[in-house]
Records
---
Amino acid sequence: MASPAADEDLPQVLLIKNPPAFAVLGEEHFTSTKFRYLKAFESSLPLHDFLAAHGGSVRAILASLSVVDASVLDLLPEVRVIATTSAGLNLLDLPECRRRGIKIANAGDVYSTDVADYAVGLLIDVLRKISASNRYVKQGFWASKGDYYPLGSKFCFQLRGKRIGIVGLGRIGYQVAKRLEAFGCSIAYNSRKAKPGVSYPFYQTVQELAAKSDALILCCGLTQQTRHLVNKEVLAALGKEGVVVNVARGGVIDEKEMVRCLVEGEIAGAGLDVFENEPEVPKELMELDNVVMSPHCAVRTRESLMEVGRLAVGNLEAFFSNEPLLSEFEDD
Amino acid sequence: MESIAVLMTKPIYSYLQAELEKRFKVLKLWEAQDGSRFLEDHNQIIRAVVSDGGTGLSPELMAALPKLEIVSSFSVGMDKIDLGKCKEKGIRVSNTPDVLTDDVADLAIGLTLAVLRKLPASDRYVRSGMWKKGEFKLGTKQFSGKSVGIVGLGRIGQAIATRAEGFGCKISYHSRTPKPESSNYTYYPSVVDLAAHSDILVVACALTNETRHIINREVIDALGPRGVLVNIARGATVDEPELVSALVEGRLGGAGLDVFENEPNVPEQLIELDEKVVLAPHAGSGTEETRKGMADLVVGNLVAHFEGKELLTPVV
């Protein structure tokens, strides 16, 4: 670590909240000789007061789980880069950042494989009742009651030949597609626009995609355009044998409508890592065996947290060295 | 053909029973008050037995049926049928390969992900309301890019390998002899070496005299405290008490098990290990499409036999 005297000369990187990677793994893994951290969360001042007092010369932010909007940016006139440790960028006001010429460095591919693995895990779990039958066995019912009834019935589904609809064919969506192809699934997708060089069929709307899918896997970012993208019409198009897996953001689905569909059997099941109002989860879901839930932990592996923290540091070091960012977010 | 008597050893699958009843005279052993008496009364007419992997054809049953011509098993596993004896006596045997390969392979990967990423434990964390009190603990185990060792590279083992490759996993295997067509996978003549070089060890071999307890203490120790064992083959391929003590003592990191030595009984300690272990009730072939496909094969083999044609999927 740099000595206290040299420290004073280092440029500052604003931390609004303590990033999970720092809190869980220890800040010592994420220090740099090229900058020092200005920790807003350690001050008793409300954020905007703190920034008014200390934000004048800050050129970089390491954002994580914190809202960065116009009111924050107004108090940080010198900021030119935001490095984030989250895959989702929905807490950053991207148009504002673009307007002010602020570059964004995101998590790159660090999370892609972990989230893709998790999405596939949730899908298989829902289709083959892995968590539900694990419960059944551990409660002693296999011995006392016999076979778990959904198994071998129309409540359990084969993967081969299933039509997978990927909503948002970005880095994560692409990794999900690659994995499911190995199971004999066919892939189609919806994204803001068709991806050149991708051979999977593209559908203009999520509703059209849902009509032609047995399972929808949500891998898109949450933006104004994608809020409640999966709505009543989409769920109806997906149909009674359809399944939804959400590893994106709870807000991409009309949660109330989805719950109603699940309770009434209008769709066959769901695998959900995210919810509209975490950690609140609709109580109706707690009773359902055709739903698998997890507490927003698709990215939460030690390896990923370490990697994403290091990537953020690397991006910031590149910025302060006037080099290209390692993982610049291009909003295409 | 309606007069041909087919004995079902147990209730297997309602669609199967219905399809058999459409074509044959189906005798249900489990409905008899006195099983031996029932067999004595009908032993001159019973020409076929339909059974499943777990029940097979016991030596006693074989001896009680002098007119038995064919055993059509609702399974791919043949470990509960004395194939040598059947061959000797001219009894045909058929099974249900291929139709269930995908489902079993899917479950193997599903169990692997469920163990590594703690899916059932995460689900319970949400259902019990714990999430409102705090974050679920950090995971440490990823699947992508890990080394997967497969014991038995038959149809099912190969299907598992193909899926794991989609996750960027490195594949190695052990089987009786190396497979030249799988030269891109690493072959280990010793299961212990395979385990030592694997993060996840998947048992996908048939149960035979040679493979009974092929996963023993030495193999489990080689797999190690961060290793995960997945078994979708037969419970007896694994030394179950050794598996349990390794998990309890932390010498093995986790296990995903679809089969057990004494189904449907599962060692109590496996249940107490909770998130280290994911258990399934022998559900490898458990989708409607596959069970129907298996049932159609069982019926198809019987029909072929009684029509004097080639069996669809003969074993003997």
---
Amino acid sequence: MAKDMTLLWGSGSPPCWRIMIALEEKNLQGYNQKLLSFEKGEHKSKEVMDINPRGQLPAFKCGDVPVNESCAACFHLECKYKSQGTKLIPDCEAGLAQILQRVFEVNALVEKSSNVIYYNWKVPEGERHESAIKRNKEALTAEVKLWEGYLQKTSSGFLAGKNFSLADVIVFPAIAYLYRHGLSEERYPKLTEYYKNLMNRPSIKATWPPTWKETPGQDILKDI
Amino acid sequence: MAKDMTLWWGSGSPPCWRVLIALEEKKLQGYNQKLLSFEKGEHKSKEVMDVNPRGQLPAFKCGDIVINESYGACFFLESKFKSQGTKLIPDCAGSDNNCALIALIMQRVFEGNTLHQKMAEVFMYNWKVPENERHESAFERLKETLTTEVQMWEGYLKKTPGGFLAGENFSMADVIVFPSVALLLHMGLSEDKYPKLAEYYKKLQGRPSVKATWPPTWKETPGQEIFKDI
């Protein structure tokens, strides 16, 4: 039941957003939720640590059971609420395989984006190198081109198969994050088409990060 | 059918090992397999690239279906062969207890990513980072991060008296995470500092699926002491 679920989340965080999209798609509106601020360090508050000892968002409880890893929560919600809302994992084998492949490839996309976007946050000044920044950007460029290629091969406009699936729930936030940070719309037409199409999907519209509506994004990724 | 499956793998690579264990647990012995060498760059060969354009191992085909992500392959095998071999994820529809157990298994499965990533950053530091960009301070920081992570897993094992990562039985959590734990211990993690992890490692070493798929290169050469300071 939605009322037994609690989500502590931060605006614009792709992992948090995944769970929110999944909850909407499975018709689980009405869950308890609390928007917290990373800037104010609220992800390290006792309230969060009680659910997620890692002090990270999302912190998500399904009844008494914590499931803080966003992909775990999404799989769990699909499994538990299989018969309601959108079917995020089809019954057919080939469909399942393609979804699984794309879902787990998201790690590569997120890691490479992070290495560019958060470089200065992760790496102390004395350890930064232009050569590293360049290499990280090249790696991200190659990765983004790969996803552009995936979308060129699917005529449906979704990442896996003919319909919106768990692959889109999990990967879309990471792609939206790229555009928020300045990814060129012209250079990646298929990705842009995907991004703009899904922006209008009810579950995504309903959960669009509030801070993204208020402030403009950055342009760190404009050279990618 | 096992005969329709092919796995390209490298010895000692936790992602490859996960799939090998899953295949054993689901009683799919008889699959086609090819052991390749990372050192010789065989993961970038045409044979692998044809299956996995990322040029990474594992590369896995089940008939015409390709799943190169180890988590994806393990989930796929469990789903397709649900009724044979070990049940790696309990059935969803069922008691609330099952629900809580499934959630715990999934939680640990996905946390396994974090463990593996932090371990890889230490293990692969000199391989990934060009010499002129290396810093003692960076390496120290990566080791500290890994230490915190390993302590967390030691804590998880203290809380599960069954001796497995999620409850009383071997599950998908163990398929996914054991290979990373094994790599840590094989490469010098202190058994005195982490008694629960050491106990877990020794317990699972004896499990048939793990024994059957123990990395061949580990039998030949002792591990390096990369993680002794963790």
